[in-house]
Amino acid sequence: MVEQNGNRPIVVGVDDSDAARRALAWAIDEASIRRCSVHAVTVWSVGPVADFAWMPDNEVRQVAEKKLSSTVRLAIEGRTTVPPIVESAVEGVPAKALVEAARDGAMLVVATHSGEHLRKAPLGSVSSACVRHSNVPVVVVRPEVRSTGHASS
Question: Going from the N-terminus, what domains does the chain have, and what CATH number goes with each?
Fold first, then answer.
């Protein structure tokens, strides 16, 4: 996975959340500095609790690929320079698939959705598992803090 310039790519987990779009933007910025590529990876699965349990596997993969491409397009919109971006939709358990995808990368970038729903958890389950199991550095991008108009305790 080493590129022609000797740099390893930055692998970033992408879904269709605002937090994941921020993680992708961060990875693109960092890749521009390091002069390496970004490998944008979305993970899909079909199972009893999956959103798309009623769809055939190939259609679920196609939906995941379209969402990934759309997210990448939004992330590069308006940028004057963009590093090479490789898009991959892989089937599997999100944390395990992302850790595997980043095995030979420079780092793994993931978003945490915690804070959107669970105020006490510093990391979500996927980002936490990536931090625990990855053999490369993991950058966790937090969701954007939205002002509620009152102080929190």
Answer: 10-141 (3.40.50.620)
Supply φ then ψ for residue 29, to 5 degrees. -60, -45
Round to whole Å and give the CA distance between 13 and 22. Answer: 11
Instruction: Give the per-residue pLDDT at 84.
Output: 97
Minimum mean pLDDT range among 61-70, 76-85, 86-95, 105-114 = 105-114
Q: What is the pLDDT of residue 125?
A: 86
Burial 91-128 (b: 16+ CB within 10 A, else e): eeebbebbbbbbeebbbbbbbbbbbeeeeeeebbebbb
Q: What are phi and psi of 152, to 5 degrees?
A: -100, 155
